[in-house]
């Protein structure tokens, strides 16, 4: 449950080494979040992330989680919820893939889709059911503006995020009146390890800006958060550009 200051006391991160997720966790810990679960594949990076957050005063535990192993999600995540209520679940796993390679290697493209969409559907439904059973909580889903309209440059990744975004919106509608809040976060280009070396896009942000928007959205119980906020207007316009013209735009 939230504390007297309105801040969540517990956080489950799916994708425990995500730079955006860890920036969000730091902000929430500063607001009195005290129990954090970092779910991800076992690695030195996951251990280091847990140690860093412990240094900030939180009780941090790690749990083995593989987005591609959907059959394990119910058991793995069920054990986390069995340890106590979770106020916020942040679904932050995903892969960008390599568009050129993925077009040549269909199974590589399938891996992108399975990670970003199929794994998210599985984990999202498991967490939504657990949040509904406890009667409260927020599920935060990291989507992307790439899912708003397919681009030649990244349509495999973009299509996986489009599916995720539609799923999260529908799930939020299905959970209306249950006490569970679903928030879809649509960042633009974010400067992270995953995007290092890629050409920077207009309106680029960093993990801290996305984290700030997430925390603000949680406080307001927003359903959709754009980062930066100006992308809402930009994408509203681009959504209606005729396809022949859209293909020629440097976006």
From TrEMBL:
Keywords: Oxidoreductase
Keyword Oxidoreductase: yes
Alphabetized Pfam families for the sequence: adh_short (PF00106)
Coiled-coil residues: none
InterPro entries, per database record: NAD(P)-bd_dom_sf, Sc_DH/Rdtase_CS, SDR_fam
Root EC class: oxidoreductase
Tree of life domain: Bacteria
SUPFAM superfamilies reported in the protein's UniProt record: NAD(P)-binding Rossmann-fold domains (SSF51735)
EC assignment: 1.1.1.333
MF (Gene Ontology): oxidoreductase activity
PANTHER family linked: 5-KETO-D-GLUCONATE 5-REDUCTASE, DECAPRENYLPHOSPHORYL-2-KETO-BETA-D-ERYTHRO-PENTOSE REDUCTASE
NCBIfam families linked to this entry: PRK07904.1
Recorded family membership: Belongs to the short-chain dehydrogenases/reductases (SDR) family.
Name the record gives this protein: Decaprenylphospho-beta-D-erythro-pentofuranosid-2-ulose 2-reductase
Source species of the chain: Streptomyces rubiginosohelvolus
Lineage per the UniProt record: Bacteria, Bacillati, Actinomycetota, Actinomycetes, Kitasatosporales
